[in-house]
Design goal:
The radius of gyration is 13 Å and the shape is globular. Strands 2, 4, 5, 6, 9, 10 and 11 form a seven-stranded mixed sheet that branches. A four-stranded antiparallel sheet has the order 1-3-8-7, with no helix packed on it. It is mostly beta strands and 115 residues long. The protein has no helices and eleven strands. Helix content is 0%, strand content 53%.
């Protein structure tokens, strides 16, 4: 059974940093593209960043230069380092992967940027 579990969300002041984690089980995460998405209240879920099986990364324009996606192949985990956080980054953040023809999502972790 494939499972993704996010952690690391919380309340942070504008300009602060958080690191989100995504723990994978049931698959070898490094064999697939892993992505981070977010959904703010009243808005559609949007893509934030992804890292391919080969390690190529890509970012949404709104987070480029502030967020970094990485993967720990030994621990079978993915991460999203978020720096210089802005109020508009407030959302529930989800990790995602498409493996064996199915799309898998975690339950999400809340990030709130507020003073």
């Amino acid at each position: 059974q494939v499972r993704l579990e996010e952690s690391g969300g919380g309340l942070v002041q504008p300009g602060g940093s958080l690191r989100l984690s995504c723990a994978a089980s049931g698959i070898i995460l490094s064999q697939y593209t892993m992505g981070w998405y977010r959904q703010a209240p009243g808005k559609q879920r949007e893509w934030v960043a992804d890292v391919s099986g080969g390690g190529t990364t890509d970012y949404a324009y709104s987070v480029k230069g502030r967020f970094t996606i990485t993967r720990d192949n030994v621990r079978n985990m993915g991460y999203l380092q978020m720096n210089s956080l802005k109020r508009e980054d407030t959302a529930v953040y989800y990790c995602d992967t498409v493996a064996r023809g199915s799309d898998y999502w975690g339950q999400g972790t809340q990030v709130t940027v507020s003073s």
